[in-house]
Amino acid sequence: MTTGDGTPSTGPRRRGRPSRAESTTGPDARTRILEAARNEFAQRGYDKTSIRGIAKAADVDAALVHHYFGTKDEVFAAAVELSFEPALAIPDILGSSTEGLGERLAGYFIEVWENPVSRAPLLAVMRSAMTHEAAAKGLRVFVLRRLLGRIADQLDVPDAAFRAELAASHMVGIAVLRYVIQAEPLASAPPEKIVAMVAPTLQRYLTEE
Amino acid sequence: MTTGDGTPSTGPRRRGRPSRAESTTGPDARTRILEAARNEFAQRGYDKTSIRGIAKAADVDAALVHHYFGTKDEVFAAAVELSFEPALAIPDILGSSTEGLGERLAGYFIEVWENPVSRAPLLAVMRSAMTHEAAAKGLRVFVLRRLLGRIADQLDVPDAAFRAELAASHMVGIAVLRYVIQAEPLASAPPEKIVAMVAPTLQRYLTEE
């Protein structure tokens, strides 16, 4: 669970908005909005989800959704981020050395996807991003840049961003084949078996010249 | 281009149907149907494409579409296969030894995607497969099993099918990030750079214990 006030101020979300508003409405409202957004996007898809619908589900005024997150794209990005909990996960993935980085990253990714609570909205997100440019942009600008960017920043290899994206592409492709297309035997393979095979690939991309 | 009569008889397409029918209608009709199907799926998406629409675009009777390909799922699978030209490509990819297999496979895949003629229908296919179970099934049953199956059959490693799917997952993920989400720097990277990085991964999956 994301506590809402546990996450550091990250980029566009609070741009130009007074943070003291949070104290007047309580961090719970922000968390409620995010979780409502995640459910709405998961159940209705990108197209049919509205700021108003999210506000209604979270039992807040639509203006508060705009206040905390900005546009629908930005709410979408924040809702996706909720599944990945980057503020908590990234330090764990990066660890104190690059040894085992590939394994930690593959393990984290599979864990997020194996958890039904995060899987449903992620599936919705991927479907939306495949068919709606606005959702694709949300993934591209916020999620990829913020998630991968933070990992790439810590890498000591040439073309760090390119390599982080190659690693991400592999994991995205596994998600597509395993959870969306459900191709066998990948769909039924034990998570450990996938992690064991994929970890050396990610390790090579992220750490070896 | 696929000549229609150049492809060997592959599974469900001609199941139980007399092959001499081709000589009465000419191989051109079959090719025209396939190309019409590819265009229809690319332009309209899986849902809105009908056998009747394909027949109209190919200037043949709808019964002939059924005759050659069977159900809409099967036409879809054949239309996807048209982009990959497996009958021509697989022997080239497999080559005479496994040396360089990863590079040939990565190069082939990127080439298919870089070609605008095959890219448009592939994008449509991926979008359809993400959102329609019938299209996902088409990919799963026909394309993955037939394309990957033929490669996996030639591999001398344990879990060949699993490994072939891991390799495929990486390439699918690259397609998603590069061509659909258009994440930078991957979207603008030269194809050779991607092949150079990805080839050792595919080589490891397909040939190393």
Quick recap of the structure?
Chains A, B: This is TetR family transcriptional regulator. With 209 residues, chain A is mainly α.
Characterise the protein shown here.
The structure is a homodimer of 209-residue chains. Chain A starts with 20 loop residues before the first helix and ends with a helix. Chain A has 11 helices and no strands. Chain A is globular and about 50 Å long. Chain A is mainly α and 209 residues long. In chain A, helix 2 packs across helix 8 (116-131), helix 6 (86-94) packs antiparallel against helix 7 (101-114) and helix 9 crosses helix 10 (160-180). In chain A, 73% of the residues lie in helices and 0% in strands. The first copy, chain A, has 2 domains: 11-70, Homeodomain-like (Arc Repressor Mutant, subunit A, Orthogonal Bundle), CATH 1.10.10.60; 83-207, Tetracycline Repressor, domain 2 (Orthogonal Bundle). The A-B interface holds A 126-127, 129-131, 136, 139-140, 144, 159, 161-163, 165-166, 168-174, 176-178, 180-186, 189, 193-194, 197-198, 200-201, 204-205 and B 126-127, 129-131, 136, 139-140, 144, 159, 161-163, 165-166, 168-178, 180-186, 189, 193-194, 197-198, 200-201, 204-205.
